[in-house]
Amino acid sequence: MSTLSSPAPLAPPELAASIETWPAWRELKTAAEALHPLQVADGSIPDAAHHAAARENVATIVRAIDELAPAFAHDAAYLTALTGDFRRWSESNFGIPDFLDSLVEFQPQQHRVDGIRHLVVFPMYTQNGSRQRHVEAVLVEAIWPAFIAELESTDYGNALFVSLRLIDFTSGYDTNSAVLFPETVAMREIPTFTWGGIFQDREAARYRRVVRAAAEITKLELPADAARMLDDAALAERTFVMWDLIHDRTHMRGDLPFDPFMIKQRMPYFLYALEELRCDLTAFRESVRIHDRLRRRSDRGETLSAAEEESLEHARLVQYAVVFDRIFRFAITGSRVRNYDGLGGQLLFAWLHQRGVLHWTDTALTIDWEAVPDAVVALADSIDELYWASIDRPKPVHWLAAYDLIRGTLPPHPASRWNRGLPDDVLAGPLSGYTDAVLDDEFPLSMFYEALEKKMRPVIASTAGIRAGDA
Description:
With 471 residues, the chain is α+β, with helices and mostly antiparallel strands. Helix content is 51%, strand content 8%. The chain has 2 domains: 13-194; 204-465, no CATH class.
């Protein structure tokens, strides 16, 4: 159960409403960007010749934070600690930055109020963006509609989940990154993380642009409510909030034979593909459940609350979003080097095609939407059964079983050692040998996807740095 009230007083919302236009914000952004070429990969500035300029820029950042702070009274403890961390970094001659003190004070999950804003400044890398720990600054706004608050407070509790909208940002977020994670911040030790932020506005904007183009290219006739989501940014954002709320909590739920945060381990990338797909398909399954339950109540003549009406509407939209985002964007986004999200999209497409739910005939795509829920849930069941059985299996046996699940639908590369059968020296050796034997592109794109990727390439590329109003 989440706490929607804040332990700190909230500033009047109008105070921060136009803060992206304040001179102090623009000065902060400029100073943060000026630090980027001075910093090396770990965030430090080792060249003493750059220290004078760095101190001047840090002083500007500190002054700007102090000027902006009254608009963020709910983050007062964080902003006070933040200026302290910047001063200490400057006074210690710009060694590896340590912003643990301010990170611990930043608690956005305590302020899940629709429209509330945060000023976030840290030396950090941005996932799917820069791998260097630059000082980045972002202005963000919470997306927390009433129906999401109700879902989270009842059957879908996720106290760490923070849903955000990007207002303005430095160059680290002028990328494909759509997350704000505390583990990316430079700090001396790892605390217990209490939140994780996802920019649903960026996810929704990418979705709307990509699906619109893909539907046109494949001649897919979209259902009316799915088409409506492409024309309504707010509707799409709320749909992605519901999807991600359920996806995020799923990483810690179910019959899990391993650490759910698998990215910390060195494993074959297809295992990450199954984990991320499992979470998305759980969001699909739960949306079907929510939709059917509320529809039955409505059909019986029961009056639904306003929040329940929104849940009913968005539960159907989540189903479209999961399918379209997975098969149109995930499958062909990024490189072919251990692309686990791409693999998950390929698997879902092939699964639906081979079960007669999705058709590519006469150069047109059609989908039997009445049959989609059962087919998608069947794939979710297959992954769940794999996980359940693997609780009793050694790790390499689980890995081999996971591979079998995928290759039962997707053909591996002809040169695959896994597909031919790993030799005895690998099977009897350390697990690293199993991972090393996986090809970078173990499951290549099908001919359908090769053709689609060529046509979609400029559209996919155009979504880097996208904002809600760009789609």
